[in-house]
């Protein structure tokens, strides 16, 4: 008998009909002879509605109280799902995050899982029950208060449960058919990928692929959990995100996918004295704002001036705070001016096979050159090449590269109406 | 420094504006130098909306899962209320029923409180915080599952907290100004009562007065908790429900109030053999249905036939089940027929002073006689006289008796638009 963990997001349990459809899916898995543990998000718009209420009573809601509030959403979805399964004649037990043994730190709103003690889950499974766990939440090990895990919290809950229970697979149900070589809304000829390594998935997620949260993929990779991304709307096979054993890499395709991202801005610190320690000074300052700096590029200094420019990208929403902090320290750092550019696009070409192949960069630069697309920044890892272009050329860049690397399918991909979350 | 427990019902926290108004009230109590613990119900229609969802996914929702679902409502109201208070500059901490130490049995949907261990409440109070507790819910001592307390659960939570914390008073906020000598919608000249004993309150609540739940009053009486019923919409003084010391009764008025109730039906078992054990046989059967039988009257048997009639009243909604059970045992009991009458009205005249006064019954019967109102059943306790009349005469009966016992005020009472819950 296998143990399967399944995760259903908010759009999969948006109303009573959706909940009944998800219940059928869970029961089918059970009837196929598996033990089943399910992590569920809050129903559809619940989270937004609760947040709206919070801001109606308080301009700056207390974080602890906000977590108490938000955690109510998953209690609603788990109990309804358990009821629906029971009405189909199968035993089901809902558990809150705390009851499921999810222990976290006390960072309200973005708590980290510190321990999972699935005693009650195991007992319920042993009793023949399907177990429905509230995603996104836990109990602070220090304060015994309810915490929420923040963005991607339900994916992370599912992966953490799969790791703690040593599950055979963690199925992430979503409103798309799986992971694609690129976003089908950007690249119509994008194809569904059957298998991708967690390392590649991490790079794709970090550079704009929205289907899986980077945090959940990281957790899965670290704990050796196999993810299976599937559609909750049909029975197609989806995408397996696996952890290859040593030596398995040779069989991998050179490139796996192209991700694009329009959510970042570029900041350039112009005229920084080219002396040791300046970069450290700048990024130590920025780290204090908790901004998520992504690409960093430092130009060679012009020998005549002894000055250099340092550029970096970060989420648009975090740019203003970073600019403010840097401006305040202008004299201490000794730079000349700050430039802020929120019209950039980021593109990442990812493939585990790159490790063993040369010429990938050249082929990419050539494809962009022939399409007259200008490259503004370049950054690479072992299995990824990222470039920054103008915002209005990045989608065309993705199509050109998708074709150049032979990723195009024979027909256009079907784009679902869903949100892609 | 006093410790005050306050309870606010669903209509008092129906939306963001109401929550802010309640927050002001709580802060004012705090600023007057009191420690404050608050029990809150779910917002307005939340309970009905959640129930509606449950029946959409399951024709017969599992009781455990239903309690998991329903308990989410109070998490929303407590966290929002705590946020609102914090935004006014006062420390506030919300606690779920389980966190507040409310331990119950495992009777889902109508759990009984078995123990209150307010460790976290005391710690929060000692830290200078106002404490907001989710009403209506607890944790099963056996199964560690969430339970709900059923009807009047939030009132009961407040009283149980007041008892466990040895609070000076338990303030029950409602949408009326207090306890009245009769329902002002029935008896326009009804007056607000300043003080009433918990014994009298129990009789009034048991016979149709809707402001307080009988269960909460019973709990308060048993644990010596003083209740203060007040309006959440104004600052009028309300009604004190107190537990008199020995000998205090002499000062009490003879009659305190008149309650009416149109929610009951009368069942008559006709032609029961007048031999010992028949009544026991009948009511043992009925007890198995958990019906709430109220008044029971057995007529003297006609000597010639050796048969008697037994009548009793019970909630209309429970009548059919009881009739079915009795009908199935017709031969075993040996009665002739069953009569079912759902057009009755019940009236109760209550007053602690009745103990020491004779002639109260005679005065009541005389008043009804002069108004040509027929009495169908009579039942009495030490501090109450109840009669059953036709449904369409019971309100007129209440007005006549209210006048006869000198309870009329000089002007009509103000009737609020609220539900009276």
From TrEMBL, chains A, B:
A Pfam family annotated for this chain is ACT_9
What are the record keywords, sorted? Amino-acid biosynthesis, ATP-binding, Diaminopimelate biosynthesis, Kinase, Lysine biosynthesis, Nucleotide-binding, Transferase
* GO cellular component, as recorded: cytosol
Q: Where does ATP bind?
A: 7-10, 174-175, 185, 210-211
Q: In which pathway does it act?
A: Amino-acid biosynthesis; L-lysine biosynthesis via DAP pathway; (S)-tetrahydrodipicolinate from L-aspartate: step 1/4; Amino-acid biosynthesis; L-methionine biosynthesis via de novo pathway; L-homoserine from L-aspartate: step 1/3; Amino-acid biosynthesis; L-threonine biosynthesis; L-threonine from L-aspartate: step 1/5
Q: Which InterPro entries match?
A: AceGlu_kinase-like_sf (IPR036393), ACT-like_dom_sf (IPR045865), ACT_Aspartokinase (IPR054352), ACT_dom (IPR002912), AKii-LysC-BS (IPR041740), Asp/Glu/Uridylate_kinase (IPR001048), Asp_kin_monofn (IPR005260), Asp_kinase (IPR001341)
Q: Which residues form the ACT domain?
A: 267-343, 349-421
Q: Which residues participate in substrate binding?
A: 47, 74
The source's domain of life comes to Bacteria
**Coiled coil, from the record:** none
The reply on keyword Amino-acid biosynthesis is yes
Alphabetical GO biological process terms: diaminopimelate biosynthetic process; homoserine biosynthetic process; lysine biosynthetic process via diaminopimelate; threonine biosynthetic process
* EC number annotated for this UniProt entry: 2.7.2.4
According to UniProt, the reaction catalysed is: L-aspartate + ATP = 4-phospho-L-aspartate + ADP
Q: Name one GO molecular function term.
A: aspartate kinase activity
Entries under NCBIfam families matching the protein: asp_kin_monofn, asp_kinases, PRK06635.1-1, PRK06635.1-2, PRK06635.1-4
Q: Which family does it belong to?
A: Belongs to the aspartokinase family.
Sum up the protein's function in the record's words: Catalyzes the phosphorylation of the beta-carboxyl group of aspartic acid with ATP to yield 4-phospho-L-aspartate, which is involved in the branched biosynthetic pathway leading to the biosynthesis of amino acids lysine, threonine, isoleucine and methionine.
Name of the protein in its database record: Aspartokinase
What species is this protein from? Mycetocola reblochoni
């Amino acid at each position: 008998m296998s143990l399967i963990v399944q995760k259903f997001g908010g759009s999969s349990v948006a109303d009573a009909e959706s909940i009944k459809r998800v219940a059928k899916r869970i029961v089918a898995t059970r009837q196929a002879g598996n033990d089943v543990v399910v992590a569920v998000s809050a129903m559809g718009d619940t989270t937004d509605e609760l947040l709206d209420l919070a801001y109606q009573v308080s301009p700056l809601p207390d974080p602890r109280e906000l977590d108490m509030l938000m955690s109510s959403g998953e209690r609603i979805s788990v109990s309804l799902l358990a009821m629906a399964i029971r009405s189909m004649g199968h035993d089901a037990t809902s558990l809150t995050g705390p009851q499921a043994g999810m222990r976290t730190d006390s960072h309200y709103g973005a708590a980290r899982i510190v321990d999972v003690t699935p005693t009650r889950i195991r007992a319920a499974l042993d009793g023949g029950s399907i177990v429905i766990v509230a995603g996104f939440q836990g109990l602070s090990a220090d304060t015994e208060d309810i915490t929420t895990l923040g963005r991607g919290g339900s994916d992370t809950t599912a992966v953490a449960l799969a790791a703690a229970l040593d599950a055979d697979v963690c199925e992430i149900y979503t409103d798309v058919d799986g992971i694609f070589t690129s976003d089908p809304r950007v690249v119509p000829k994008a194809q569904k990928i059957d298998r991708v390594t967690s390392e590649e998935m991490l790079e794709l997620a970090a550079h704009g692929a929205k289907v899986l949260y980077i945090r959940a993929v990281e957790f899965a990779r670290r704990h050796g959990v196999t993810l299976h991304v599937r559609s909750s709307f049909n029975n197609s096979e989806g995408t397996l995100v696996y952890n290859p054993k040593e030596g398995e890499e040779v069989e991998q395709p050179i490139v796996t996918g192209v991700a694009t991202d329009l959510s970042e801005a570029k900041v350039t610190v112009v005229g920084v004295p080219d002396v040791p320690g300046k970069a450290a000074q700048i990024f130590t300052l920025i780290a204090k704002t908790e901004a998520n700096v992504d690409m960093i590029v430092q130009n060679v200094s012009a020998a005549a001036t002894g000055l250099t420019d340092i550029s970096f990208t970060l989420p648009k929403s975090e740019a203003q705070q970073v600019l403010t902090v840097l401006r305040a320290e202008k004299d201490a750092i000794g730079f000349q001016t700050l430039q802020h550019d929120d019209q950039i696009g980021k593109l990442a070409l990812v493939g585990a096979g790159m490790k063993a192949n040369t010429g990938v960069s050249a082929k990419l630069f050539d494809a962009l050159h022939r399409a007259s697309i200008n490259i503004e920044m370049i950054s690479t890892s072992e299995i990824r090449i990222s470039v920054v272009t103008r915002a209005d050329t990045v989608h065309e860049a993705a199509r050109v590269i998708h074709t150049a690397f032979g990723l195009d399918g024979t027909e256009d991909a079907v784009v679902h109406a869903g949100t892609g979350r």
